[in-house]
Design a protein that fits this description.
By secondary structure, the protein is α+β, with helices and mostly antiparallel strands. The protein has twelve helices and 28 strands. The protein has a domain of 204 residues. β18 and β19 form a beta hairpin.
Length: 517
């Protein structure tokens, strides 16, 4: 028993000391990230962001889509994380196209744009994280179109026959095109029926909700925020408990009296290190245990696992689609809508009451979801993600890798490809281009850049990173990629594992000492 206790104390002490900085930045970033609405207006300048996050050649989803005007083939609009950009010379130069657009870098992220031709005029719709916007293209002034009562992240804009359909991460809105201006469209919410035998929750979703306290709603988030504060305190008190004996020994050698404030500080910190540590142990074990599976490589273990919703240990929204929809497409040949969600693919006939049923597509889709999801004329579907770009042929049902021209086989859905696809567009001349996460914009096939699509200098000068995203990159360890190289991927799994062991050994030590007393 003494040997076990001694070993346990050693692990608790030295793992705790090794984790001090790790736990301090994780607790602070976690608390702030738990309330994105409070920090959405704050951003970080380019100089404070590591170089591997700098946007170069339209990388890092700064462009995910480009559409050309039907009235002027030299005029086009591009969208992505940096908002909407316009070119009037076929792509030689770009300028910001964001008057009256969301000013917060957090909300200006644009997931889709759609150009509507209506009564000889063109209207540009933008689906942003801050809502739905429309521009009549005459004054470069955007107008926010209200959907529901709450601000939602809009994911896709579809025109199906004479109706505009808006897909958000949780809901479905539509409006009929009538004699009124498209700027005055009135969207109504349409119920999406989820035809499942049993409602399920992905294990990834459950772990994320347990990790930040969302599983118990706002009270749960606030409780986990409090535990985050406790973790920060435990880190400081652990350091002082280790430092105090060394300071005391050094002062005794020099015959210097210890200050009363130093004694009081040690007693206070040590006392509440024990008390707060044991009180918060259960929740800290949840935080550490879930964190271990929330980053690769361990994320792959739970990526495809689901559990019945009745096993969910908290409160689920009544809406079964709540924050689950990634994107959507409309297939005009079969007159059906396909949704891509955190739980997989669902399809429904457009003329039905949108009764969605689970379906599959014979095409690779990375575990994080598709970044390109559209029909390709009458020839099938165009599907791109971090494991490549594929044309799912309608006639053969085979996925063709558009970067190699060969049929796609043995494509991993958890291991990213060399070219992580973030976007695709086609010029009026039939040239094809992709954008990738790290390498930016690249031509495919026989297409040529010809000095087009250069990134404007204002992006290099003014590009800022939303504070929430900055904290998220610190929290998940990617922030340290420039320092640790490929080993950064192990930072969170190893740190959370060590934290778990430190908690268990701390609880064991507390009970042993308590029993002796």
């Amino acid at each position: 028993m003494k040997k076990i206790f001694k070993t346990s104390k050693w692990f608790h002490k030295y793992l705790g000391l090794a984790l001090i900085l790790f736990l301090m930045w994780e607790s602070v970033s976690g608390i702030m990230m738990n309330h994105p609405e409070l920090i959405s207006d704050f951003s970080v300048p380019r100089w404070a962001v590591p170089e591997h996050y700098h946007v170069k050649n339209w990388s890092r989803s700064s462009i995910i889509k480009m559409i050309y005007s039907n009235k002027d083939s030299t005029r086009a609009y591009a969208c992505g994380k940096l908002g909407v950009w316009e070119t009037k010379d076929g792509g030689k130069t770009f300028h910001s196209y964001m008057n009256n657009f969301p000013t917060s870098p957090f909300y200006k992220k644009t997931n889709d744009i759609f150009l509507l031709n209506y009564e000889s005029e063109e209207y540009l719709f933008a689906a942003t994280d801050g809502g739905l916007y429309i521009n009549d293209l005459t004054t470069n002034n955007w107008t926010n179109i209200k959907l529901g009562g709450e601000q939602e992240k809009v994911k896709k804009i579809l025109k199906i026959k004479n109706r505009i359909k808006i897909i958000t991460e949780s809901n479905f809105y539509e409006s009929e095109l009538n004699q009124n201006s498209p700027k005055k469209l009135l969207f109504t919410k349409t119920e999406l029926v989820k035809n499942n035998d049993e409602r399920v929750v992905t294990l990834v979703e459950l772990f994320f909700h347990l990790h930040d306290g969302r599983v118990l709603g706002l009270p749960g988030k606030l409780l986990f925020d409090l535990v985050g504060v406790i973790i920060f305190f435990l880190s400081i008190s652990a350091f002082y408990a280790w430092y105090f004996p060394k300071m005391l020994k050094r002062k005794r050698k020099k015959k210097i009296l210890l200050k009363r404030s130093e004694k009081r500080a040690f007693k206070f910190l040590f006392k509440y290190h024990l008390r707060l540590g044991i009180w918060a142990a259960a929740i800290m074990l949840i935080v550490a245990g879930t964190a271990f599976f929330m980053r690769p490589p361990m994320l792959a273990v739970i990526a495809t696992v689901t559990i019945p919703a009745k096993w969910y240990p908290g409160f689920l929204p009544d809406n079964p689609w709540h924050e689950k929809i990634h994107t959507a497409l409309y297939d005009p040949i079969d007159d059906k809508i396909i949704l891509e969600t955190t739980e997989g693919l669902y399809q429904a006939n457009n003329e039905s009451a949108l009764n969605f049923q689970k379906t599959k597509l014979n095409s690779p889709i990375f575990v994080m979801g598709p970044t390109v999801f559209d029909t390709l004329g009458h020839g099938g579907y165009l599907i791109g993600s971090f494991n490549g770009l594929f044309h799912l042929e309608r006639s053969t049902g085979k996925p063709i890798d558009l970067l190699t021209g060969k049929e796609a086989t043995n494509i991993s859905n958890v291991r990213p490809a060399e070219k992580m696809i973030t976007g695709y567009f086609r010029t009026p001349q039939g040239e094809e281009f992709i954008t990738t996460h790290e390498k930016g914009l690249l031509p495919i096939g026989n297409s040529k850049l010809n000095n087009r699509f250069q990134m404007p200098k204002e992006i290099l000068a003014e590009c800022r990173m939303p504070l929430w995203n900055y904290l998220f990159e610190i929290h998940n360890g990617r922030f340290f990629k420039g320092t640790l190289g490929g080993l950064y991927i192990l930072l969170v799994p190893i740190g959370s594992l060590f934290f778990f062991i430190a908690i268990v050994t701390g609880v064991y030590d507390w009970f042993v000492v308590r029993k002796r007393k």
